[in-house]
C-alpha cells in the first residue's frame, strides 16, 4: 500500500481551515482512495517523501520570504506564475462543473491557473512531483 500525504495551502485564510489542510490519499491495489482529512505529519517524516522529493521542499514559499521567482508588473502582481505546486486544487467528478468553478476563480488578477487539466493524480502520478511542480503556472492566490 502506498500512502501519499498531500499538504496544501488553502485559499481560505481562516485558521479554522488550517488544521484540515492535509489530504491523505491511499493507493490500495492500484485504486487511489480519497481519505478523510488528516493533519500534516512532521517535515522529514517518511510518509512525506514521494519520488525522492518531499512535499515541504516543493511547496510554495511564503511571499514575504523573497524566494519566489516572480516577475511583476507595475502593480506588484505577478505577470507570470511560478513553476511550483499548486496552492489550490479543484477536484470534481466529470460534468460536475469544475471548469466553471475554475473560470470564476481565475477572474481574480492574482490567480494563475493551468490551461488544461493536468490529471496528475489519476493519469500522471508516476511522473512525480517534480513534473507536477514544473508543469505550469498553477492556480495560485498571491494575496
Ligand atoms: N452553474 C451551472 N449549473 C448547471 N450546470 C453547469 C453549471 N456550470 C457548468 N455546468 C455544466 O457542467 C458541465 C461541465 O462540467 P465540467 O466542468 O466538470 O466538465 S467536464 O466533465 O470535465 O467535461 C457542462 O454540462 P454540459 O453542457 O451538459 O456538457 C456545463 O454546462
TrEMBL record:
Record has Magnesium as a keyword: no
Per UniProt, 3'-phosphoadenylyl sulfate binds at 95-99
Instruction: Name the source organism.
Output: Latimeria chalumnae (Coelacanth)
The name of this protein is Sulfotransferase
- Keyword terms: Glycoprotein, Transferase
Class of the enzyme per the UniProt entry, highest EC level? transferase
UniProt keyword ATP-binding present = no
The catalytic residues are 95
Per its UniProt record, what SUPFAM superfamilies does this chain match? P-loop containing nucleoside triphosphate hydrolases (SSF52540)
Composition skew (Polar residues), residue ranges? 62-77
Extract the ranges annotated as region (Disordered): 59-79
What's a single GO MF annotation on this record?
Answer: [heparan sulfate]-glucosamine 3-sulfotransferase activity
What are the Sulfotransferase domain coordinates in residue numbering?
A: 86-133
Query: Which protein family is it in?
Result: Belongs to the sulfotransferase 1 family.
